[in-house]
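Hello K.,

You asked for the raw outputs rather than the summary table, so here they are, unedited. I folded two proteins back to back in the same session to keep the settings identical. This is the first:
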Amino acid sequence: MLKTQTLISIVGPTAIGKTTLGIDLAIHFNSEIISCDSRQFFKEMTIGTAVPNIDELLAAKHHFIKHISIFDEYNVGQFEKDALLKLDELFIKNSIQIMVGGSGLYLDAVLNGLDDFPEVDLSIREELTQLLKEKGIEYLQVQLKKLDLESYKNIAIDNPHRIIRALEICLGTTKPYSSFKNKPKTPRNFNSIKIGLTADRKLIYDRINQRVDLMMENGLLEEAKKLHPFKH
């Protein structure tokens, strides 16, 4: 079947200008913006997550910005469902829509669907979390290397959440985490165009430094202090 709808996704490193380009395209095509930056979902996290400012939000309608609380249960699977439903609504208005990236997993879920991981006993994650506290991330890295070398080589092994997720699947299913990541892409009813932004490394770092300075002026430290009691 010929697809007449198109989703333009904008990806790239922090401070590269994804928001600005997304707004420019939304204005040009008279469309709206799906945000897939999972950190910007939360009402309580505004400064440190670089949520678009008031002028930017007024320039183009955004979805999935500050729409939930840190106390809500929300995950990438729910976002996939919500984003696809919203896109169905938006495509009725206009056949071209915009998605601005930030979280690769969330963007990939919308474009290609999620890998089909089985449910595992919650106690496994609790045990791994306790091991992380007692023995550190290096211990978990060694365990993952033993159980699933492919995942050890390919996931962000400095990210404790990714390590624990991979290990809980390995331990809960007795199969490598990587064995569940080879499912075919889920067909979508829209065409996908992905725009990747790049720039000189020094320029990006300078922009990040400037952004952090501005965040500090706007109350980043105070925001972090308020959020600290709810870390997990």
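The second followed immediately with the same parameters:
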Amino acid sequence: MLGAIIGDIIGSRWEFCPTNDYHFEWISAQNDYTDDTLCTVAVADAIVHQSDDYGSYIHCWCRSHPCPMGGYGGRFAQWVRSNRPQPYGSFGNGAAMRVSAIGWAFDETDDVLREAEKSAACSHNHPEGIRGAQAVALAIRDARHWKRTFSGAITPQVLRQQVLYRAIRLYSEEPETFQLNLDDYRNRFDETCQGTVPVALWIVMHSHSFEDAIRRAVSLGADADTLGAIVGSIAEAIWGIPEAMKQQVWHLLPDEMKEVLKEFRHHLYNLTNKQKQVEDAILHWKLGLGNANNPLFYGKSALPEKTKTATVSDWKIQAMPSDRTTVTEVVVKINLSPQTMHILKKGHIPEAMEDHWFMYCDHEYIRYYRSWTGVCVFEAHYLPNGKAYLIDRIRINHHAVDLGANKEKAGTALFCYLLNAETEGEAELTWKEFLKLKS
């Protein structure tokens, strides 16, 4: 969300004296926050207080700061001065410049679109105003999710097809052929959403860093602070912000804004942590050993009674694939005590639908299968090592389970978790190690 504020402050100097110089002075005593920053902070403040009455927060913040740099636009100024502000059918770009906090705070697409509409409609309730807010919030949301898993070069094609696709689609039925000629917008002061948001998306799509995106936006010679705010809000989600740039603008903000930004960051941390706990719980249900309704980590063992030794004929299973693109062999050194090996040789026959693993052990291999599909995931070779045993290599079917990018290490950790869970060893520690390596 700081990206919108930085874009606003950097562009503020050039709002009424536009520049086409890409190498303009980045920041000076002539830069300050404008109404764009005030409204952005107001939306974040509403979210921190778990309110969807964005209009009240925007109105309150703007009333308490009556003279920001550049002032307020004519009709919005009337809205701010009113004691009972009502939406006035605006399709101005103010709806899009203030929405970034929603793109950070909500994950589900329907939630993002709904909250973006609410944040716009309190004043800018024209369909174009709402669409502008939704496009920017959706671009930020999609960029955040894309960034979690992407590795590689960030190119215009990647940004068009993977990051900005759905935002562009709000303006073009065929995002693949979306085209703009920036010369048509250069040195034109267009305050509408439809004249600003597509330009912002195009600029981001052809940028290669946060700073580059802001410089392209400001040097267009258009509505510099608002275009900078919109571009900066999306660019932050893609490239992040250099720490030095954060510090350059932080001292320009009053303490009450800084407090909201800190609270919003804490709010996002709590949301992320809560979401991760949910995701980890779902993953443990999918990959954990035993009956997930009676977890291994707490209290009574969730393992089935080992009254019978599992054999190859006890479950409908498939052989480990031979395709090297599917299966990886990892050299390991896992020592097993005689007592541990005695338990493992009994195997693992599921007794509940929530138990997703079948395992049997022959004279040479320990094999784990997904109980619902019979697919072989692990095939571990073991041999005697004095009075104990040693697992010296594991074949991992990394197409059978999601192991993340670090397949070999994460797969080995998951296998070690299964062994520990099977023998009531340090299952919780090895599960946490698996989660760490998978992420």
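Confidence is low (pLDDT under 50) at residues 291-301.

Happy to rerun anything if the numbers look odd on your end.

Regards,
P.
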